[in-house]
Write a structure and sequence with these properties.
153 residues; mainly alpha; Four Helix Bundle (Hemerythrin (Met), subunit A); 66% helix
Length: 153
Amino acid sequence: MLDPTATYRTAQVVSANRVGQIVLLYQGAIRFATQHLMYVERKEVENAHRSSMRAQEIVAELRGSLDLSAGPIAVQLDMLYDFVQRRLLAGNMAKDPKPTEEAITVLRGLLEAWQEIASRPTSSLEAPAPIATGLPVMTPEVGASPYAGAARR
């Protein structure tokens, strides 16, 4: 029997452009990290672990798809992803909500930035203006994408 939610999500991913796919990945990481918090509160250790691992896997995929030669924005994203992964790991190991909450805060800031980029017309995606997210300013070079090398891997 097919899960209609899974079918819908698969259709979203397949039909989304690259920026849209990144937005979906952030949403998924936040969803699983939030589930981790819920399961920790309920003392459901196995489900908490499973949810945290899913969030960590998504962040690892985002990090692994970076093209670090694309410029400083890719390097800064790599450092943020490293921080998020370490906080998710710490929250999972200790079953403590605080590190996971810190990771979610960073992911939400990044999600807002990518949603802003996704809402722009395609022609304006080449040189986006800085976005006020409360995170360090990461201005890419014109035409540079931190994920440009993802298709080559």
